[in-house]
Amino acid sequence: MFSKLASLAAASYLCAGAIAQRTLEYAIPPEEALALSQVVEEDPPTFSIAKDHESPPYDLIYRVPLPIPPLKQPKQVVTNPVTGKDILYFEIEERLFQKQIFPNLLPTTLVGYDGITPGPTIMVPRGTEAVVRFVNNAQRETSVHLHGSPSRAPFDGWAADTTNPGEYKDYYYPNFESARLLWYHDHALGITAENAYFGLAAAYILTDPAEDVLGLPSGYGEFDIPIILAAKFYNQNGTLESQLQEDTSTWGDIIHVNGQPWPFMDVQPRKYRFRVLNTGISRNYALYFARSSNTEAQLPFQVIASDSGLLDSPQTVDTLFIAVAERYEVVFDFAPFAGQQIELRNLDDVGGFGVDDDFENTDKVLRFNVAADPVDDPSTVPAQLRAVPFPPETQGIDHHFEFHRQHGMWLINGVGFEDVANRVLANVPRGTVEIWELENKSGGWTHPIHVHLVDFRVISRTGGKRGVEPYEEHGLKDVVWLAVGETVRVEAHYEPWTGLYMFHCHNLIHEDQDMMAAFNVTMLQNFGYNETTDFSDPEDDRWDAEPFDLADFRAGAGIFTPEAIEAKIQMLALEQPYSELDAVQAALDEFWEGKDIGDPNAALEKREAAPEPCPKTSPIPRYRRFVL
Fold this sequence. Notes:
It is a single chain. The chain is mainly β. It is 12% helix and 34% strand. It has 10 helices and 35 strands. A 7-stranded mixed sheet has the order 14-13-12-16-22-19-20. Strands 1, 25, 26, 28, 30 and 32 form a 6-stranded mixed sheet that branches. Strands 3, 4, 5, 7, 9 and 35 form a 6-stranded mixed sheet that branches. It is globular and about 65 Å long. It starts with a helix and ends in a 36-residue tail after the last helix.
């Protein structure tokens, strides 16, 4: 659901058909300009040693079938006491398990949602709320982020809001956004990379009848296929190599698809929809399709969706850049290749834009064996997919964030997340549109940047060797890749919720070593609606993890009985984290009406832009955890 402002803006953008060229004025806060003037960019390494592999040789490339993560079924359906609608209840156990990767070596111990990796796929209809109870029966603390969801702050996976072994937490998800591929993954402070690397990642799909009627290839696991990527290093005995001591990047020399190194898939000669998700902790990809008989010749395919759902129209390309945490959905038609083998492959050096280390087989991803006999294919790819709800235009650059390495630390404008006093780098009034300028000056690092809560539009890319990709331009995103030397501007509508949220580099080694900060969507004075409960504080102890008894969990007793589950979910629902959405949107529309629909920020008191050269001012304002 989107406000009237966003809907009107979507119509104007669709008429334009391309990113409007605008002259943007800098209006960043003076203290931010001062911080930027003090940034020091550490020199990257000048060379790397090429290797065939670090892991043991893997002899089963394209010999094991592609596994499909199972669909998770709701354990219970509870009626929302406020709206009368269904709330789906899921229960997921985080636990250790063993998996054989190399046939003649030791199995490796992993940690997964429900003891598999990737974890089970959750599929929910748009407009149906869900509560997912994550039960930590593993060995480390966890925090779960539903990536791509406008969740309230206490349910967003704030890095310091952790669940210890022997505890559980109920995460309440809204699911009102457009149909899309989301994913849930670990976000625990300082150990996100290790937890995700060892298996805590999975897909979460929102469906919508408006998308179903388009006639795209459909049927989860049949013609609608998740392609969940990861790259890993293994010890010589076959166990997964820990990355706790890594401080730059973990590229990985074993490419996994849905948990299986270099699998194959038997396909029919017809169109397939592939939902591609990069869950790796560092490696980025430049993906392309090619015949096995001629792997250098790239074949065309259509990109139909990005992080935040369908594009406005399909984009035909022959290469897809997908950085860590990005999602793209593509349609490939195997009909012209009946009886042949097609491969999904990866260009070296991320197509010339990355710094990832390449190994002997990191150019390979997945092979398709196309059946020879023709089949009927009722699917189609329409010329127009949807009206994308782009944010309203604004004319000022509100913040400039530089992602850099300084004195051995990964920082944003000289600040890291564990600098609690200074980590809130932006205060954004609720309902406003802001443009953020994201910069990577380095020639030796790249950074995929994720902003929580919002979908954004990529409006420009400069400084490197490319502009905005067509599949970025025609849709909305929540991750954007800053390749070598690139500066990217993104525009987002900071609604509907108030609260403290994170933004960070999604190279998880960088994130864990502090390339993460926060922004605060602030309350409006004289706002015309008072919500039942304030969910602004992500560390509000009312929503903290709670202890559980393992015997009760196994037996479905105590807090795990249907009666106890229903009571807990109804208690959560009565606090109305999401059921007041329509009223909040209406109040936001009324608040901003007549205050310049093209620039909602114009209604606010203007910040003084930092003059040049930057003045000497006091340090960045100190932050203390606020109390509700």
